[in-house]
Amino acid sequence: MDYVGPVEKYILKNRNGGTKMLAALLDPDSFDARGAARVAKVAEDAGASLILVGGSTVVEQSHLDRVTRDVKRNVTIPVILFPNNVTGITKYADAILFMSMMNSTNHYFMYGAQVLGARIVHRYRLEALPTGYVVIGGQSSASFVGYANPLPSSRPELASVYAMAAWYLGMRFLYLEAGSGSIEPLSPDAVRQARKFYPGVILAGGGIKTERDASALASSGADIVVVGNLMETPNFEEKIKTIAESLKKIKNKIRK
Ligand code: 1GP
Questions:
Q1: How many whole angstroms from 170 Cα to the centroid of ligand 1?
Q2: Which parts of the chain have pLDDT scores under 70?
Q3: Residues having CB within 6 Å of any atom of ligand 1
Q4: CA 220/CA 189 separation, integer angstroms
C-alpha cells in the first residue's frame, strides 16, 4: 500500500533533488479571502514552493474555508493546513501538517486534538503529513496557546533528541518553531543539531525577516523555510523573491 500521497511526493522530489523550499504561511486572522489569494499568488510567482494556511489564534471556521478555497483557486503549488486545533481543518486544502506538539505539557496538544481531528481529516480526504512540532524559545503565541515547555534558545543541542524521537515515532516531518513574529529568528544551530539525527523533512520557521536568516537555516539543514509575518509587511514581494532566489543558490551549492 502506498501511504505517501501526492503532496509528500512533490516535497520529497524537490528535497531529494537538492531543492530548498520556501513555504509562505498565511494567517487567516490577518487576511480576507481575496487578500490571502492575492498574496499567495505573489508568493508563488516569487518562487515559493508551498503555501501554508494557519495561525495560533482561532478564526471563524467559515472564514478559514473561504480563505483556503480562494487561495487554492489562485495557485498551482500545494496548499497545506498548519492547524492550531481541530478548528484549523478545512476541506479546501490539499494536505495538512498532522502535528503533535512534542514539547507541550498538555496532552490535548500532543495527541488529544489529533484524535478529535482524525475523522474530519479522513472525511475531507486531506493528505495527512505526520509531523513533530517543537517550539524553541518561550515568547510566542504558539508556545502560550499550546502549553509548551519550550526548548531554551541557548540549548540548541536539545533539538537533537526531539529529532530522534520524532523519527523513531514515525513522523516524516519535523517542524522547528521559534514562534510567529519572534524577535530572534530560529537558531540555525538547533536545525543543525536536529539534522544530524533526522532523515525526514525539516521545516524551520519563526522570526525570519531577511534572506540571510532564511539561508542560514537552509544551509544548516532545513528543507523548507517558513515565512509568515513577512508576508504582511510593505514590499513583501521583493523580500520573498530575494529569499526564494537565495534558497535556489543553496541548491546549486549542494549539487556541485
Ligand atoms: C510561525 O514559523 C511560522 O508559525 C512563521 O513565523 O510569522 O515569524 O515568519 P513568522
A1: 25
A2: 58, 251-256
A3: 25, 142, 177, 180-182, 205-208, 226-230
A4: 7
